[in-house]
Design a protein that fits this description.
Elements: E1 13-19, E2 23-29, E3 44-45, E4 52-53, E5 55-58, E6 64-67, H1 69-77, H2 80-83, E7 87-90, H3 95-98, E8 107-109, E9 115-117, H4 118-141, E10 153-159, H5 165-177, E11 185-189, H6 190-199, E12 203-205, E13 211-212, E14 219-225, E15 230-237, E16 243-252, H7 257-271, H8 273-282, H9 284-300, E17 307-311, H10 314-324, H11 328-334, E18 341-344, E19 349-353, H12 354-378, E20 386-390, H13 397-406, E21 411-414, H14 421-429, E22 437-440, E23 444-452, E24 463-466, E25 469-480, E26 485-486, E27 491-499, E28 510-517, E29 531-539, E30 549-558, E31 563-569, E32 575-576, E33 578-581
Parallel strand pairs: 1-10, 10-11, 14-20, 16-22, 20-21
Antiparallel strand pairs: 1-2, 2-3, 2-4, 5-6, 5-7, 8-9, 12-13, 12-21, 14-15, 15-16, 17-19, 18-19, 22-26, 23-25, 23-28, 24-25, 27-30, 28-29, 29-33, 30-31, 31-32
Helix pairs in contact: 4-5, 6-14, 7-8, 7-9, 7-12, 8-9, 12-13
């Protein structure tokens, strides 16, 4: 443990909140403790470096009760009637990935199927994780009054690189709702945080066992394999130690929970979905214990075992036999699994042939390998020779062996404590300049505009009258091209003009729609051109109203992980009030 800062002034503090799908953790550092530039920054994480389950328990009135392990234990200890009155949420982070049309009004379901505002759930859960961190800071610095501590904290909040612009804004607003100041929040892309951390570590080559650091010019695939999503991109370490994204982030909901879901589906196929669901609803502690037993076997599974034994909950067995009128042995005999699955009444354990467990991994593993194959093929000129695996799921022996089997000529590198690479890297990001990463745009971005209609060139069905003139609507005015390299604070300008002859129009806010496309050069803002609306630029009139001829320049600005905007009067240079809203 580093020596405690005895100064009466509150030190500058860097905090990372890793709000994961299945598990959450934190990291914090006190830069003033780092006296010697040659020593590494001490990063404090969860006790025993263990993350806590990402779950939040709310009272009947929807107020906060508890977060993490405490929330799970409290919910498990409740009787069924009490569970009906409270709200318990798990795996709710996936809502930000799965909802293509994300808004502030979306809802998520708790374990009982009760709906609640996703925004409120995220705010309360993040507040719970934040309170855990603040308690750790108080303990470390013996600070009695934490009121002013937040002003000294730089909050690094990790997010998947594959998240949409709207999901990023949703997460930022949830953090603000949890009491974190807007200007103290920095969103950090998880693969980049892991890359930054690993850049300074002696990494283990899994085949040879040798250790080395990545050198300037090193190119590698970084795969952040978590519980919910996989997040994969290609990085190069540049001469100044910065990171350059060679291949834009790609991913899927193919993390470790997909394996657990396959096991649950197996139980449902054997016992019946209604029996499994009934166990979850009425004996939640039994259901969680059953899934925990599988989780522990999943972590150690190598694929070379002759068979795997997993204890089955006796209540699950009893309810199945009562409902079906037959024994589990008979059910196995009637299925096509008789040669691959056996049940022992005396031990209460089911013995699985290794091939069955492998099938639980198949969907996830095949998805990860397919993504990696695509990247290697499309980056052939970069001659990629290294895969860097991070995240909790990356610690799976079976997964690593399948990747090595699929890519025998590529070095597989695993950082120690792979599950903490993102947390520690995001803390380290707090010491770096904001321009440390160059990224490739995942989409083509542009504003929807109207231009003078050209007969025979523009589609007839886009013809309209604007400001008394014949115009073509829905034109995609491109600013950023898919795959284009972006740097921090880079600006893209769009100019527009509007005649305002009526008095009432001079007092209204004007909206410009921001679209993105999967194509490099879309012409119109349509589905056929791979376009979708992602945000709205709202421009508010000055106190005296708009002029008769409004001519403005909109600047789309590249931030660390998000776009911002600035709007100017084209001739006076005066900055106008404007916001970019992705929700």
């Amino acid at each position: 443990m580093a020596s405690r800062n005895t100064s009466k002034t509150i030190p500058n503090i860097i905090v990372s909140l890793d709000f994961g799908t299945t598990y959450s953790g934190y990291g914090l550092a006190f830069p003033e403790e780092k006296i010697d530039p040659q020593t590494e920054l001490t990063i404090y994480t969860n006790p025993r470096e263990e993350k806590v389950p990402t779950c939040v328990l709310l009272n009947e009135d929807k107020s906060f009760h508890s977060f993490g392990s405490q929330a799970l234990d409290e919910y498990i200890d409740m009787d069924n009637d009490e569970r009906e009155t409270v709200y318990f949420f798990r795996n709710f982070k996936m809502a930000l990935y799965k909802n293509r049309k994300l808004s502030r009004d979306i809802e998520v379901q708790d374990e009982k199927g009760k709906q609640m505002s996703a925004k409120l759930v995220f705010q309360l859960a993040m507040s719970g994780l934040k309170d855990i961190v603040m308690g750790r800071i108080k303990q470390h610095h013996k600070i009695e009054n934490l009121q002013n501590v937040s002003k000294a904290i730089e909050w690094m909040i990790t997010i998947p690189a594959i998240w949409s612009d709207s999901a990023r804004q949703f997460m930022r607003e949830a953090a603000e709702g949890a009491g974190i100041q807007h200007d103290r929040i920095r969103l950090v892309l998880e693969p980049e945080a892991a890359s930054l951390y690993c850049r300074q570590q002696k990494l283990i080559l899994t085949d040879s066992g040798a250790r080395h650091r990545f050198a300037d010019g090193q190119k590698y695939v970084v795969a952040d394999l978590g519980g919910g999503t996989i997040d994969i991109c290609v990085h190069e370490i540049t001469e100044n130690g910065h990171l350059k994204e060679l291949y834009r982030a790609t991913g899927e909901d193919a993390g470790g929970t997909k394996v657990n879901a396959a096991f649950e589906c197996f139980l449902a196929s054997l016992f019946g979905r209604d029996v499994v669901d009934d166990l979850r609803k009425t004996c939640y502690e039994r259901f969680i214990t059953q899934m925990r037993d599988f989780e522990e076997r999943k972590k150690t599974f190598k694929g070379t075992e002759r068979n795997i034994k997993i204890r089955l909950d006796p209540i699950l067995m009893k309810r199945f036999e009562t409902k079906s009128g037959k024994s589990l042995q008979k059910a196995i005999e009637d299925s096509n699994l008789e040669t691959k699955v056996k049940y022992d009444d005396d031990s209460g354990r089911m013995t699985f042939d290794t091939s069955v467990i492998k099938q639980f991994f198949d969907g996830s593993v095949q998805c990860i390998i397919a993504k990696l194959q695509t990247i290697v093929q499309e980056c052939a000129d970069d001659e990629l020779k290294t895969f860097l695996l991070v995240g909790g799921y990356a610690e799976s022996h079976y997964l690593r062996d399948k990747i090595r089997e699929a890519f025998p000529t590529i070095d597989l590198v695993l950082v120690e404590d792979a599950k903490l690479a993102v947390i520690k890297g995001s803390v380290m990001m707090g010491l770096e300049e904001r321009n440390i990463v160059q990224r490739r745009s995942r989409f083509t971005y542009g504003f929807r505009t109207a231009k003078p209609f050209i007969e025979g060139f523009h589609p007839e069905h886009f013809k309209c009258i604007r400001d008394g003139d014949l115009s073509c609507k829905k034109i995609f005015d491109k600013l950023i091209t898919k795959g284009q390299m972006l740097t921090y604070n880079q600006k893209f300008k769009n100019s527009s003009s509007k005649k305002l002859e009526q008095a009432e129009s001079k007092k209204v806010a004007f909206i410009t729609a921001l679209y993105r496309s999967t194509k490099e050069d879309p012409k119109y803002c349509t589905e056929e051109e791979g376009c979708e609306l992602v945000g709205r630029l709202v421009k508010y009139p000055p106190p005296n109203g708009w002029p008769d001829l409004l001519e403005i320049d909109d600047h789309l600005i590249v931030g660390e992980t998000e776009f911002t905007v600035k709007t100017y009067n084209k001739y006076s240079g005066e900055e106008l009030q404007a916001t970019l809203d992705f929700l």
